[in-house]
Structure formats: structure tokens, C-alpha cells
Fold these 4 entries.
Entry 1:
Amino acid sequence: MADKHGGGKLAALEERMAGYNLRGQWAMDANRPQKVRKGPQNQVFVEPSSSGVGHVWQWDKMIPFLDASLETLTDSYTARRTLIMSNPALPRGTTHTLLASMQIIGPGEMAWAHRHTISAFRFTIQGGPDVYTVVDGVPLTMEPYDLILTPSWMWHDHHNKSARPAIWLDGLDVPFTLALNQNFYEELGAAAQELRPAGQASDARHGPFRYPWAETRPRLEALAAEGTVHPHDGVALDYVNPVTGGSTLPTIACRIHWLPPGFEGKAHRRTTSAVLFAVEGQGTAIIEDKDMHWDRHDTVAVPNWSWLRLSNRSRTEPAILFSMSDAPILRTFGLYREESEADRRP
């Protein structure tokens, strides 16, 4: 920082303060990011800078790596075959609070039982009646596009008794939990949990752990048939915990979007960060004026406070997106904000 306050006096003051592990706020003001406003005495933040960048992970590029991991890591009990989608502009995470990854388990395999304070879900891509996750002793079938929750500190293990590999999208609040230095982890010891007796409920505070696609898709179609289309999100249906009435997990909100044929969304931005997964169709996410084209089963990172505009590139078929965001965190602490294209400042 240039010394504007009397020769070398400021530098000498800062040097003496450093010996007591003190630092003047004026030094921080001098190194603030671009989005600042100069006041009569100092500089103040106008708005946050986006953490990370928008990015697309293409399904057809990931499948060969998933298949290769089956050949290279021959036992899913010794290592999770998971491809983490790392944002190119962040030290860790798909966004600054969320992590998305693709996991594969071979035929006849299982992934060992453990639990952690990290909250997570599984959005099934390739599954079936013989693929399931056990959560707190309850087996949950993983049919294609089923949403399976593994809440914080719940035991879970994965099983594939089918004849082909099982694949799903993992969504976790890893960066957020690690930033708070609150990560606890424990292995069960046994490879798998003992199953609860039929009909015995799990922890009712968390609501259902499985949202079947066979129920979600008809509800989404019925909502789309009503013709009410949000200018930013298309036709959007939230996954809701029926016990609390809130989000699926305390730190992660899940939503499914129906973009009608030819949908051209309006630009908006939110203080939340999000990850989009394309269930069906093809479209474009314009993030900070950069076109990010996506096709079926591609994954898109949307940084916080970034301008976003969604569109469906097909004029004849709808597109369906699954999304996760950190909205519950921000809403809890009163930090959620959004801004539409009409409010956009030059």
C-alpha cells in the first residue's frame, strides 16, 4: 500500500503492529477485489465476487474414465470409484460450497458402510431394482433418476446385485463442511449394515430418504401442463422434506426443472451457487455471458452471484434439469438475494 499518511510513519506503524499479530483494516481495503465503492474515508464492498467459474463436464467424456476405473480399481470395497468434478478456478469443490461427482459400482459389488457429518445425496443415472443404497438400516432402491438422501451422520452402504454397472451423481456439501472444520468420519467395521425389520421406520426427523422418479416425473409433467413457466427456472418442482416442510437436506436444496420446447429464460443471478444435471434434452446455460452448451447427462457448475440464463435448444422436445444448490445455508443466515435482468445494472 502506498504511504499517503506521512512519510514512512505508516510503514513503521504496520511493522510494529505485525510483531503483535495485528493488521490494520486499511491494508485490507487496499487489496479488495474490483467490486468496491470508494467512500469519503475508505472503500466498502458493493457486492460479492463470484467464487469459481461456470463449467461443463460432458457425459461422453466421463464415461470412458468411469469404465476405465472399473478395470483399474478391481474392488469397490477398497476404494470408491468416484470422479470428482473440480471447478477449474477453485482449490476444491464444484462450487465453493458444493461438490458433485460420478460414482460407478460394478455388477455384484458393494461399497462399504460408513458415515460422516457431510450431507449427501445420490441421483441415480444407471440403476434398477437390484441396485440399492442402505441408509440407517433401510434399503432404498435406485431406479434411474431416483433421488436418494444420505443425511449427515447416517450410516450408508451401496449395493449392485444387477448384471451391469450402476452409476449415479453424488451431491455433497464437502467444501462448506470443511470450511467450518466440522468434518467427522467413521467406518462401521462390518462391510454392510444389518437391515431393519420390514416396516420399521428410520429417523422420522429427516423425512423420506428416497424420491422415486416414477412419482416425480408425473408431478413435473402435470405442473408443466398447467402452463405456468417461471422466466428464470422454467417449470420448477422442489423436492421437499414432508416432515419439516423445508429442503431435502439442511445444507442442500434439490429441484427438478422442465424447460418447454424453445424456452429462452431471462437473465438472473442469486447469491447461491448451484450444480445442474441434464436428465433429458439439450440446452444452453449462459453464465456471465459465456455460452455453456449441455446435452443429456452433462453437468454444469453455476457460481454464486453469476448472471445465468437457461435455454432449451430444441424447438420440439422439452429439456429436464436436476439441480442442487446451497440455498438452505444462505436462507438460514439471511444471506439469500437474487436479482433479475430488469434490475441489471450497467
Entry 2:
Amino acid sequence: MHTVNLDLSLEEISKIEGGAGLDISIKDNQVTKCEFKITEYKRFYTQAIRGKSAAAAPALLARICGTCSNAHILASLEAIERALQLTPSPQTMTLRRLLMNGLIIRDHALHLYLFVLPDLFNKDSLLDFDDANPKQHQLVHDAFSVKDSGNQLSILVGGRSVHAPLPQIGGFLKLPDPEKIPLVYQQLQTVRPAIIKLIDIFRLAPFSLIHSVPYLANQNEDYSYLNGDIISSDGVHILPQDYRSHLNHICLTYSQASAYTYQNTTYLVGALARMNLNHPGLHPKTQVDAASSLKLFPSKNVFHNNLAQAIEILNAIDDSLMILGQNKFLPEPIIKPTLQSGQGFGIIEAPRGLLYHHLTIKDLIIQDAEILVPTGQNQLNIENDIKTLVNQKLKSPNFNQANLARDIEILIRAYDPCMSCASHFLKIKWC
């Protein structure tokens, strides 16, 4: 049997959000070191936000992440409103739900079509798809059509697809233009069949890595990303205000991101966790058209995170069509807070998992902040799964370094870690 001793250094990991790297050491066919390094993460937002107006906080905190900016806006709005004991109107919550759906459609489409789909067709890029092949030609067009439908829904509700200016503390600056609602409605209907095809593609994807970890996600009756109590796959029910107390902060000397454990072990948040714990709340039409895929959940295959994201796109479309078809948005005043000081938390499901904002406000000025993002929470689990994958590959009689590099790329992309987007593929330096 072959004996492998080598060090791997992944200097750049691409098709993910921002700067990251990976160092692996293999001694006598066993991984002895595996360090997933988030190298461009620490930007001191929790310090920079101190002394700023609470009213400005959502727009400022949105700059943490361009692609997930609207999730940070919604989490910080919830934190401020809880701190100041302000209850937004039902119409405001409906509009925020639509804004979140737009983010889910756009963000998941970017990940699945542009980052992950090329792996299934053994391509380096979606732009390498064969234009003469009808299936590949159509998938390229679907990628941009679906992504644009999410953009247009976000623009309709939030004013922009990213860094939406319209959602505010206690309401919206402007309501959706009634003349544009039918156009967005029609666009969502048009792209829906493409998502059903996408779900089937990921249902049949050949990749698999089984792990056994706790999954944490919001639970509610209608698969909302904005409310509900948190549950875990080990049967623990967590009130949103108690979430932070269930997590332990871990400082990694090689990474700029804070890591966390739950019950002293790694855990997973994101689409796979949501689908495992909350799929009965999916829209009825989604449950019908994704029935074959939903039979696979709950799943312990981390690659089913991609399948879960595809199902979530369909659900966001169906939910948005229902809301746009059943509601007329009427002018209403923005609710003004009566308090000026307090502490509040906002916890929502961002595309990649549970996002937590905790803000302390005094005289409408931010005094302190704590923010937990999904990728930081998944960081240790990513490391463990990479280690498991490499150890499995080392046992194969067909092991070779080139295949291992590709397999690591595909696994990391399955998690859809959120750093700033890169346009090149990951390169591995073999030492």
C-alpha cells in the first residue's frame, strides 16, 4: 500500500467570498494538521459602529458583506427594534419577507449556477459550457435569468438589490411600485421551471460526504427566515434571546474569523440545517414539485447543502408569488421609537445560516455590538469535513494529489463560505 507524507498549502481558495487559505499536513497516510484560514475577515465592524447613530447602524453594518448586505440590514433592524421595544407593522414584516426572498433567490443562484454547477459538468467555469449543447446552453441562460429575478424582487421591495436603502427602523421609506409588481410576478413565474430542473440536477449529483454533527436553525410554520425559535437536531429548543449563551467562542491563531462550538462540539448552520429541521414548513407548491428531492431529508451528506439551496430558491419564488398575488401594499407611517436606550438582538436566517446581531444603545447611539456570522460558526466543521475527506481519499488505491485538490475545492464550495467573491479557481502549492 502507498505511504503518503506531504504538506499542502492552498494559497487562494476561489469561487467563495473573499480571502481564505488552507494548510494540511499528512504523515503516514493520516492528516495531522488541517487549518482552514479566513484571512480577510477581521475588519473591526463591532468597534467601528460604536458612537454611531442607531438609525445609521443597519446601512453601516450592511457593508460587512456585499452579497449578504440585506441580511445584515434585517438583522440589525430587528436588534434595534427589540432594544427600543418597537413592534413593526404586519405589512412591514411582509415586505421584509419579500426582501429576504429576493436575497435567497439571487444569492443561491449565484452560488449554484456560477460556482458549483461547473463541477458537475467537469468545467472550470460556467462560461466554458458548450453553446452548441442545448442543455448547457440553456443552463447558462437560466443562471442569469434566475439571478436577475432575485435582483428585481429585491429592487422592487428594497430599492436596490444590495445595500437596500428603503427598509428602515419601524417601516419602509417607500412601498413597491404597483405598476412594477406584475412585471416581477411574471418574471418569477417564468424562471420557476428552471429551478425545478436545477433541483433535479443536484438531486442526482454524485458527491457525498457523511458527517454526524448537530444542525441548528430557526423553526416556524412557514419556513420564514425572519422569525421562530431555534431548534437543534439533538432535540434542544433554544429561545432566540438565549442563542448566544449556547455557543462557546473559539479563538483560532491562524484565522481572522471567530469560531464557535455548540455543546462543546462543531455544528452546522445553513440551508442543509434548515431543510433538515424545517422542511415541513415549505410552501405547498414547493413540496409537490420537489417531492422526490425532499425524500432525501433529513440528510447527513454535506453536499446536500447545494440541493437544499436549490429547493429554497423554489420556495422563495412560490412564497413571493403568493405574497405578491394576495397583498396590496398601502401607505402607512413609519413607526417611531418611544425609547432611546436598551439592548436588543436580531437573529435571522441569512442565506448561509443563522446570523446574530446584538446591539447596546444609549440615547440612540450604539455603545456596543456583537455579530456572529454563519461562516464563522461553520468554520470548525469545514475543517473537520476536509480532514475526513482527505483521510478517506488516502485510503483509496487510486489516490493521487491532483484529484485530491479538486475534491477539496468541491467540498469547500458545498459550504458556500461567505468571503468576498473571487473570479479565479483555487490553486494548490504542493510542498
Entry 3:
Amino acid sequence: MERTKTIETFSILGECMRNWGESKDKSEINTFVADEFNEKVESTIKTSIIYNGWFSENYVRQAFLNLGKILNKEELTQWLDKYPVVSSPKNVGLILPGNIPMVGFSDIFAVIFSGNKAIIKLSRDDDKLIPLLLGIITYLQPELSDRFQIVERIKNVDSVIATGSNNSARYFEKYFDHLPNIIRKNRTSLAVLTGNESVDELNLLGRDLFDYYGLGCRNVTHLLLPKGYNLNNIFGAIVDYGEVINNNKYGNNYDYYKAIYLMNQVVFTDNGFVLFKETTDLFSPVAVVHYHFYESNQEIEDYIEQHKDELQVIIGKNYEKIGNSQSPSLTDYADGIDTMSFLSDL
């Protein structure tokens, strides 16, 4: 496989994805791709929204934009520089998630760039957009059609990368224990605030909380706050994100948990589109944010250490930049496992 040519192919795709994400005029998109796919992209976006109520047009386009930003020649070349192309290609089974639009595409292009073949089991929640992207790259570079296959069931593979819940992970671990594998379980993200954040920073925190309605492992579900912190600081800054309540699925979650908390006399704070509940529990349901207070840096370190195997991203002054949780780089691997090293060593 000629990696340089494939980098160019994915760079063209990235350029188009950035433009589709920004809803730019057809004339601003690579014409070689736009002439063939522009209408198909728009119709596929609309179809994916119909089939999955969590896939709003805004967030589908945001996913296009975020993926497109990292698919550029410079970053791809730098990323791949330390990974060799395998001399003996293997069939790599990919069981993809569907919680966020095209979230499994990074595993697919990692397998392709490694020189292996991706045997892909799509999630039923995201089975429209990824085939579209694969169609574009094979249009640009036809020989890549040999580097992937979409299947109904994973079989006859040499290794597996599977992403799912803790329950499904137990099944995956048992079923694929005889193969080299990466099995990803439930993870979430944490924000550590100091109390000195600006209004603009707290507004950006809303992106970490509400992008993709909070469904991603990179979404913040828990806030660590300094003792005495006034939640109104956050409420005033995140008011711009209130439109999430207009999504029926999100709104149903909000109504459900509000009713449950009221019936069970659970103390919570409500700002009209999200519920804040004080608890040390890391994971929170959609439309709920958990928080608790700390009095020392040691308490922060202890909490992080306690949950290190459940955390994807930590946001805050001394951690990842606030507002960037859903903009991972090529080296921000899921679960902190270097996927490319795994694929290169098969």
C-alpha cells in the first residue's frame, strides 16, 4: 500500500468534511468530490437524522468538522511517521459504537493506514454516514476497496477492536479471548474547576457538557468544584446551550429524571434544561450533571486515582483545555491505548 497516496486521499476527504461541516457552498468544496457526492452527503445527513433521533443536523455537521480538522496531510504524516506499514496484512474485526456520528471512523482509517484490512460491524445507530465516507475514499483511490469490508457478523478475523458497554465488553472478552484484542468499556470525562474560571471559560464548559447531548465518553458528566462554589456561576454561563431541551430524546430524559428525583425527594438543582445533583458518582444520566466539592488538591488526586480506569478526559486548568473535550487529536486514543501500535504489531 502506498501510504503517501492514501494520506493525500484522506486529506482530500478531510477538506471536504470540513466544508460540509461548515455547510459551505458547493463551489468551495473539492470539485472532484463535490460533483459526485455533494447531493449524496446532504441526503445522507437527512436520512441519518430520521433513523437516529440523537443525530441532529447540527451535531452531524460538527462531527464532520471535527473529523475533517485532523484529516490533513501535515497531521496525518506526522502521526504515521513512527508506525510502519505491516508486511503481512491481517483481518481486523471492528465492532463500532453509534453514540456519536461517525465516532468509529477513526478505528477504520487506523486499520487502513496500518496496512491491515478492516472487517467492519457497524452500529445500527450509525450505519449511514460511515459507508458514505468509505464510498468517497474508494472513489478517490479505488484500490482502498480491498482494505475494508462491511459485514453483519464478525468472523474469520485475526484480531478485534470492539467498543461497547461494560455488559457487552464481558461478552466480547469471552468471545474473542483467543485473539489479540482491544475491548473498550464505559468511560466518561471529568472537569476540575478552581473557581477562577472566566465567564468565557465556563461558557466553553457547556460544549464539554452538551455537545452530542452528552452521549460521548469525552463528554463531562461530573464536576469537581472547590468548597463553597456557587453553581449560579455555571448556570449563567451555559444558558446558550438550552436548546438541547428541544431534542425529544434529551427532553424525555430531563423529564424522567426530574420526576424520579421529585418522587424520591432527591435534592437537585434545575436550570430548565439540565439537572445538577450533588454526589460522588462519576457517571450521570443524559440531562443530569453530577458534582461534588473538594477542599484540597489531594482530594482531587484521590478521586482521579479512584476512577482512573473509567476516565477518558480530564478538563480543567491543569488538564485538558476547557471546551476541547470533543476535539481529540490523532494521538488521543480511546482508553489511552495506542491503537496504531497495536495494529502495527499484529
Entry 4:
Amino acid sequence: MQSSVLNSNDQFSKHEFDLLASSKSRFVSVKLAEISDATRLYEFIGDYLNLQENVISLIEDLILRNKKGVFLFEKNGVVLGFYALQMLNEHGLEALLSGNFDGSYPVEKFLTQDGQSSSALYVWSYIAPGLAANGVRYVSRFLQRAEYRNVNFYARPVTAEGLQVTLDFGFVPVESSTDGLYCYTRLINRSLSHQQAA
């Protein structure tokens, strides 16, 4: 799917994704999506993209298979944005780096199961216009939990705007067999790398 719309008053210029966690989001509430949210999310996305009807089943699959990977940004019960990740296991990461990964659809064999550690986080899609972009701060905070804090992010932006946001959050191009792949190395991993090199 890999769409992206993200903007706000401060434009999030050149922010480290991990450091967004220290800021509070006062403008939206954020929740992990449940299967009952799929229709609302589908309708929200439809305002930005020309969707086919079968996309709702894709959204349901992503929520079902990825229970901690789809965040809804809301205000007064109205969906204002979302941020969706695929939590990849070691096979998913290998497929991503070797060019054998289709990021448009969640493949169960590549996703972590309950209780399994993730090897990578793949940014599937997000749309967060205006003040809804502040919801990304919550996502950053959620991903500071012990089970995610040292798991690197990967993204493959397909629009100029998506690329700009990806770069602003600290992603850099990565050599792989997947064209246009970017990686965000978590701060804790950079710190460990620096310590080992010293």
C-alpha cells in the first residue's frame, strides 16, 4: 500500500523518530486498531486514495495478523489518521533485503506471531494530515517498549512527500535487492555500535 501523508504545524523537520517519544500529543488520541475498526479505517483511507472494495479485506488481514501494528489517530471518535507497520520475523527481514518481499500485502509467514520477537519493523502505510501527525509521537513512544526498542525500521516510500518524511525521520538508503529501501537504525543500536567500535 505504501501511501503517506504526514504534516503538521511544525512539519516534523529533521526529527529522530525515537526522540518523538519524549513529546506529548495533545491533539489526538491514539489506539491500536481492532478488527471492528476496519470499516472506519477503510472509509478514512478512501478519502485520500482511490480504493477497490477488496482493500477492506486487506485492512482486516493486517489488523488480525498484526495486532500491535496498526495505530488509529482519533478525535471525538472520528478517525483523523493512521500509522501501520508490519512486524517482521527473520524470514520477513530476509525476504525484504533479498527483494522477495511484497510490502503491499501482509504475508503471514513473514510476520511475528504472539510472543515472538520481531526482527524488523516495516512501515506499511500512514496518512496523518494536519494535527493528526502528532499521533506519530505516540507510535514512537509505543515502540520504546522492551520488545521493540532495538528493532530497526524499514520503509519504501513511493511518493516524493513520503520520501521527504522518511528522510526527515532519520531513515537512510540501504543497500539491498529491494529498490528504494530505507532503514532507520534505532538510537540504542547506534549507541551499541559506537561502543563496540571504541
